[in-house]
């Protein structure tokens, strides 16, 4: 018997592949007991290419592990000739555990990287010679060095995004010279100038090679290259491994597929079983693509295709919502969607709740969670899921206030994030300094916080694109919102506040949230929730601009956001609550609208493409704690072409950037001059008064009264009270009363 390529290396911490394992009770057919007809079809399809299309909660892991075990126990498979690959160490560990229980010890279940790394170490001396290059556990430091060699100053959060871009380029097999064109072709939102990224990428590769290092992407690349260049080694691998199973096949990247093709050999499918669900493709930003899953039958016309649609996880009510969500989907993945059929008893209907503002949404969610726990639901069987990690802070605080333990998955706790700790240092310093030119001119506490954080790059408008830079901005924006809420709360109690009191509040919150939580509610992003499930799930913050995220511009990017919500919905076994808030902060304008993905699903809403339904009817959307009479605002459409607007600046202007402007140029210049004078008088950046986009919107609409001015995005209640009279005077062609006589030149201080 040939030596196992994955055993005997210093990296192999698992059992020897030649162990025969414990004997299982009964014969091979005992493995099939308890499987439904479709799962049994998977388990008994031991030959030829097999494609399993498995919906959420349909028992795909059960089906493929029983398939492997049935093959081993029936003598069709030798355990050491089976390799099962997946995408996370947790999933691989779960698969190994199940195979042991089924009497299939000796089968290798690994991640792509773990399997490739062991093969690379085994064959390197023979194929290349000399010691194996040292693996970089983290490439950020080398990326930082490469950026420095290119003369670029890159912040720590930008480094993470730059590193992610290099990883995306490598898994999509894009070289430095081709990176800018690949970004343009894919519609990818690059975190910085693609030409700069390509330069850093090139220097990173050169430096890594010169020092004899490899990164995780190189592990796949080099292993594939060795198998391509050395037919004798490829034959040895294919003689060793004759049966392959690939889980989560919708998440495979071009580089992983290249390696898989080398493992399986010419024809590529005789001994291959792939499992996936195109409707759960949510990692395209990392280079994953469902194309290989969707095109499997085209590449392998003789393949056996089995669809798993019996949902054992969720109630019929949850499954009905999930099916309805996908029924509105578009694109290639949508054409292959699976209609799930729940196998569970009926449960409560999903609950849709609208709130006045985010803090109310979080506080009410926390109270409902506490009620569920009191009713007997374990805290560890409850989850709060959101689109971005920056949304977690308000839920961390709300749960802490009610002494409900929680655990944050896939991200650092809010007050442990580097940008929040750095901001805390700056705020403490400003508080100790007392009188400070940076904060003295700020109109309120939130203005002081904005002014302090501006020194670290905080801007009123979020940065374009996704990634670490956007996450950092979200964290800092949360600190500004906390300042607004803290000041309002103190004012309601008749108390004054200052920066020192706010810093003390932050310290108290941080201390309260450091308590360890063993049995706790899970707080997680929707991406981090993939592969998990809970009895009760709260999907929060479901507003336009958040889900779909504002930087999802292409149809495919929007559809991936829909799939992300589908993943969130299908995490729930029984209780499911979907909620959104009309404004960010208490007292703010109700300018938000529920996610378009809920149209036609939530009571009282109309399906996409139809006229909006009224809010009357039997119950409709459950009103949270919100003011009577507050209407739900519809989508913002271009005043010229009527296209629905998604960009923040376009939404403010109420027109597409490319559509003709009706702006009063003279009024715009007067507004800029007035703003500059106000900013100088306050000792604050000009954008703290009004952003350029808001001034442009005012100059286009030319409001005649306070009511019309209040409808313009960026003119909140506080700014309306403070600046409304002056702005209306300018719009009327008059000089504002009490304005400084010496007006500045009107140069915009607003960050680009």
UniProtKB/TrEMBL annotation:
Cross-referenced SUPFAM superfamilies: HRDC-like, P-loop containing nucleoside triphosphate hydrolases
InterPro entries: DExx_box_DNA_helicase_dom_sf, DNA_helicase_UvrD-like_C, DNA_helicase_UvrD/REP, HRDC-like_sf, HRDC_dom, HRDC_dom_sf, P-loop_NTPase, UvrD-like_ATP-bd
Catalytic activity: ATP + H2O = ADP + phosphate + H(+); Couples ATP hydrolysis with the unwinding of duplex DNA by translocating in the 3'-5' direction
Record SMART domains: HRDC
Residue ranges of domain UvrD-like helicase C-terminal in the record: 316-574
Entry EC no(s): 5.6.2.4
Keywords: ATP-binding, Helicase, Hydrolase, Isomerase, Nucleotide-binding
Biased composition (Low complexity): 602-613
Superkingdom of this protein's organism: Bacteria
Cross-referenced CDD domains: DEXQc_UvrD, SF1_C_UvrD
One GO MF term attached to the UniProt entry: helicase activity
Pfam families in the cross-refs: HRDC, UvrD-helicase, UvrD_C
Positions contributing to ATP binding: 54-61
TM regions (residue ranges): none
Residue stretches making up the HRDC domain: 661-741
Keyword ATP-binding on entry: yes
Enzyme class: isomerase
All residue ranges annotated as the UvrD-like helicase ATP-binding domain in the record: 33-315
PROSITE patterns the record matches: HRDC, UVRD_HELICASE_ATP_BIND, UVRD_HELICASE_CTER
Region annotation (Disordered) ranges: 1-32, 584-629
Family: Belongs to the helicase family. UvrD subfamily.
Protein name, UniProt field: DNA 3'-5' helicase
């Amino acid at each position: 018997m040939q030596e196992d390529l994955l055993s005997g290396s210093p990296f192999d911490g698992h059992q020897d592949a030649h162990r025969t394992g414990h004997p299982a009770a009964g014969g091979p057919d005992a493995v099939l007991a308890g499987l439904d007809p479709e799962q049994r079809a998977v388990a008994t399809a031991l030959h030829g290419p097999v494609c399993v299309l498995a919906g959420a909660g349909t028992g795909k892991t059960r089906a493929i592990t029983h398939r492997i075990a049935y093959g081993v126990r029936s003598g069709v498979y030798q355990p050491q000739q089976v390799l099962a690959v997946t995408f996370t160490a947790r999933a691989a560990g779960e698969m190994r555990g199940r195979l042991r229980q089924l009497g299939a010890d000796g089968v290798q279940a690994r991640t792509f990287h773990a399997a490739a790394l062991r093969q690379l170490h085994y064959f390197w001396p023979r194929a290349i010679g000399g010691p194996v290059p040292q693996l970089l556990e983290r490439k950020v430091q080398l990326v930082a060095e490469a950026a420095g060699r290119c003369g670029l100053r890159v912040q720590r959060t930008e480094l993470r995004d730059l590193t992610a871009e290099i990883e995306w380029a490598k898994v999509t097999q894009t070289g430095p010279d081709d990176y800018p064109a690949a970004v343009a072709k894919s519609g990818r939102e690059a975190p910085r100038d693609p030409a700069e990224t390509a330069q850093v990428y090139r220097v990173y590769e050169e430096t890594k090679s010169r020092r004899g290092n490899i990164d995780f992407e190189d592990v796949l690349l080099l292993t594939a290259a060795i198998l391509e260049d050395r037919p004798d080694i490829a034959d040895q691998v294919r003689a060793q491994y004759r049966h392959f199973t690939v889980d989560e096949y919708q998440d495979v990247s071009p580089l992983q597929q290249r390696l898989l093709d080398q493992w399986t050999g010419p024809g590529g499918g005789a001994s291959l079983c792939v499992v996936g669900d195109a409707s759960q493709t949510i990692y395209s930003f990392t280079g994953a693509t469902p194309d290989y899953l969707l095109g499997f039958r085209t590449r392998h016309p003789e393949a056996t295709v089995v669809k798993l649609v019996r949902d054992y996880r969720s109630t019929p009510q949850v499954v009905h919502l999930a099916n309805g969500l996908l029924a509105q989907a578009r694109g290639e993945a949508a054409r292959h969607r699976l209609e799930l059929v729940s196998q569970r008893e009926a449960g409560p209907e999903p609950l849709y709740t609208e709130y006045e503002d985010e803090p109310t949404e979080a506080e009410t969610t926390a109270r409902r969670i506490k009620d569920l726990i009191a009713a007997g639901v374990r805290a560890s069987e409850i989850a709060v899921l959101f689109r971005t990690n920056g949304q977690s802070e308000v839920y961390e605080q709300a749960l802490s206030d009610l002494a409900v333990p929680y655990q944050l998955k896939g991200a650092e706790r809010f007050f442990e994030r580097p940008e929040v700790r750095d901001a805390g240092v700056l705020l403490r310093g400003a508080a100790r300094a007392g009188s400070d030119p940076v904060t003295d001119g700020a109109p309120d506490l939130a203005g002081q916080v904005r002014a302090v954080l501006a020194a670290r790059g905080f801007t009123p408008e979020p940065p374009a694109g996704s990634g670490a830079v956007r996450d950092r901005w979200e964290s800092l924006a949360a600190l500004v919102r906390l300042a607004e809420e803290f000041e309002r709360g103190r004012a309601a109690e008749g108390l004054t506040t200052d920066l020192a009191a706010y810093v003390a509040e932050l310290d108290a919150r941080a201390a309260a949230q450091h308590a360890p939580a063993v049995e706790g509610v899970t707080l997680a992003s929707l991406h981090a929730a993939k592969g998990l499930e809970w009895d009760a799930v709260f999907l929060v913050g479901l507003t336009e601009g958040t889900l779909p995220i504002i930087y999802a511009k292409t149809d495919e990017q929007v559809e991936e956001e829909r799939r992300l919500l589908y993943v969130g919905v299908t995490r729930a076994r029984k209780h499911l609550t979907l909620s959104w808030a009309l404004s960010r902060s208490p007292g703010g304008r109700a300018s938000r609208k529920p996610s378009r993905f809920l149209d036609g699903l939530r009571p009282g809403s109309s399906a996409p493409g139809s006229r909006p339904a009224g809010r009357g009817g039997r119950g409709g959307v459950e009103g949270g704690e919100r003011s009577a009479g507050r209407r739900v605002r519809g989508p913002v459409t271009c005043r010229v072409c009527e296209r629905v607007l998604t960009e923040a600046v376009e939404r403010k202007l109420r027109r597409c950037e490319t559509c003709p402007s009706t702006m009063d140029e003279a009024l715009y210049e007067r507004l800029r001059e007035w703003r500059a004078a106000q900013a100088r008088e306050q000792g604050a950046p000009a954008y703290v008064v009004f952003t350029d986009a808001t001034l442009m919107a005012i100059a286009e609409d030319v409001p005649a009264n306070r009511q019309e001015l209040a409808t313009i995005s960026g003119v909140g209640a506080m700014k309306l009270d403070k600046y409304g009279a002056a702005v209306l005077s300018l719009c009327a062609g008059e000089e504002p009363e009490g304005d400084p006589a010496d007006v500045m030149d009107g140069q915009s201080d607003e960050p680009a």
